Structures are given as structure tokens and as C-alpha cells.
Amino acid sequence: MTTAFQSNLVSRTFCTPRHTTHYLESGPATGPLMMFLHGWPELSLIWRAQIEVFGAEGWHCVAPDMRGYGGSSIPAASDAYANEHVVADMTELHDHLGGEPAIWIGHDWGSVVAGSLTAHEPGRSRGAVLVSVPYFPDANALATLIPLVDRSIYPADQYPDGQWDYYRYYTTHFNSAVADLDADKASSLASIFRAGNAASVGKPAPNAMVTRQGGRFGAAHRAPPTKPDPALWPPADFDVLVRSFEAHGFRSPCAWYLNDEANIAYARKAPNGGRISQPVLFVNGAFDQMNTITGNHLGDPMRAACTDLTVINLAGAHWLPVECKLELTQAIRAWVRLRWTDAALSKRSDDGE
């Protein structure tokens, strides 16, 4: 099914017996393929700025709603959101799009999927752009993350899980965590998507205090009334995001956090111990209290596992696709031009390079 979607984006739906994926498309179908994977709590539309630019430059840009979001399948079972199932969604979509090696670009949990797919299905990937969340060959899971916490910011006696306390809270108080977010979905989303602040660097993140507060929003158990920042999401796109969450709620997006054991087991099935030989660009948010790899050990597993890694820093926090629209687009473009010629991108490569 195909419909027009605002500006020059096209909305499509692809169905298989196991899954339905809604995706946005920009650029010529004959162009080299770029796949844009969103994270929590987002939609394909978070990539509007990037896919419009790259589509106009001749790339075939595809941005799916990941499972649990938007117009894609929303399974009821929490274990349906394990990485292996999401990678399978993407491989089916990739086959539908022709199966040519693509550049996989992911943000947040989308970065996790882009890295995992590149590790498990190297022939499908020319390279990966990981935005905000670095690659962990042993999976993005609490058992991986907590040993890497910067204890100069998060002393173990005060913050046993460091900045990942919110992640732990999902595993211990899932229904309460979801109910708090669902209590005022528009304000929850508006409060989550905020621009970064250099003054926050080196200070404990609010997400490190969720358990002691009794939830993300404390005793109120709902987001305070919050207006969205139009400098991040265009208002019309934010309205689409809110309508999607009004329809489906936060339960399925949050269920992505409940599959650590399955995700670790799947990660350990990757060839070569999960090492990635394709070029990888990691885009670090300099003000990202959760995921910055500057001045700590969070990026060490990625540095060890990626043989061709480039790291750049942008002056933003976590929501770089909307917070640093132009800067992120320019960073991806510069990395691509450094790695591949137009002729190489137009030619099928059997080894994924």
C-alpha cells in the first residue's frame, strides 16, 4: 500500500505473514540505499530532515516504524521485542527493497538494531552510522552497561545502576513505568524531547534517580504539563507522534527494555564474536548525560569490536536527529564521501563494502 505523506515523503506498508512494517521513503528507488532506524520513543518521522536531504541528493532513503510503533505491527507479548525479531523485520524489509547492501543508520534503540544487523548480516551492510548509542558486541543490556558506569559521577553506594537506573526500573516496575508515561502522553513526549545543555556535563542524569523518586515523574505519576519544543520536532510531525502514542500507548515501546537475556544470547551468535569490519561512524552527543563516550569507558567495547571506526562529536544531547538536524546530515555526508565514490555506491558489492 502506498500513500503520499506531506512534502516529498511517501508512506508505504509492507506485509509478510510474520510482520507488517510501515515506512517512509524518499529519493529514487534506483539510488543507493540508506536505511534509517528510529529509537525510543520515536517514529520514522524523526528522520525527516535527513531523508529529505539525502533523497534529494539521489539516495534511496527508507525509514521504517519499528515494531511496536506507528503503523507497524504491535505484538502484545513483551518477548516479541527482542533484538533478533527486530533484525528479522529489517532483513525482510531489506529483501523487499531489493537486498542491495545498504548504509544502516540508527538512533537510540535503532542504533542497537543497526549494529546488530551489521554484525549478524554483514552482506546486507556497506557500513553503519550509530547515533547516540554505541555498539556493544555483547548486547545493549544492563549486564553490559553497568560495569561501564563512570563512578566519578555515579558512586556505587548512591547510584548502583548509574544512569541506567531508569532501565532497571522497567525491569522491576514495568506496569507502573508505563502507566506514568501513559497518564499524559503528549506531555510525556514533550518532556522527553528537550535540547541539551552543556551545563549538565559531568552531573548525574535525572534518569539515574527514577527508582528513588518512585517513577520518572515522582509522586505525581504523570508528566507535568509541557509544551513541545518546535525547534526539535516540526509541529505537524510532533502531532503525528502524539496521535500514534495516543492510539497505542507506551507499553510496546518500553517492552524493548525487557529482553536482556534474549538479546545477550542473540548477540553471542554473531560471527567473529560480533566484530564489525565494515566502516562504522559513531555520532556522539557531547551533552548526552546517558550515552556520551567522552571521558568514560562506555565506548570501549565498540572501539575494540569495530575495525574501521570514526567518532565525531556534535554539540547536542541525546535527540540528535532533531536537535542537530543539519549537523548530523553534514556529518553523515562527509563520512560517506570519505569512504565511497559515487561509482562504488552505485555498484552492487557482494561483500557488503
Care to describe what's here?
With 353 residues, this protein is of the alpha/beta class. A nine-stranded mixed sheet has the order 1-2-3-5-4-6-7-8-9, sandwiched between helices. The protein is globular, with a radius of gyration of 19 Å. The chain has one domain: Alpha/Beta hydrolase fold, catalytic domain (Rossmann fold, 3-Layer(aba) Sandwich). The protein is built from 15 helices and nine strands. Mean pLDDT is 95; it is low at 1-6 and 348-353. It has helices at 48-56, 83-96, 109-120, 142-145, 165-172, 174-182, 185-192, 210-213, 235-248, 251-255, 260-267, 300-305, 320-323, 325-339, 342-346; strands at 2-5, 9-15, 20-26, 33-37, 60-64, 102-107, 125-131, 280-285, 309-314. 48% of the residues are buried. Helix 1 links the parallel strand 4 (33-37) and strand 5. 35% of the residues lie in helices and 15% in strands.
Q: What count of domains describes the coordinates?
A: 1
Q: Helix count?
A: 15
Q: Could you list the spans in which at least 5 consecutive residues all have pLDDT below 50?
A: 1-6, 348-353
The proportion of residues forming helix, as a percent range, comes to: 25-40%
- Helix and strand string, N-terminal first? EEEEHEHEHEHHHHHHHHEHEHHH
Strand proportion, as a percent range, falls in: 15-25%
CATH superfamily: Alpha/Beta hydrolase fold, catalytic domain
Using only C-alpha atoms, the radius of gyration works out to 19 Å
Shape: globular
CATH fold-level name: Rossmann fold
Protein structure class: alpha/beta
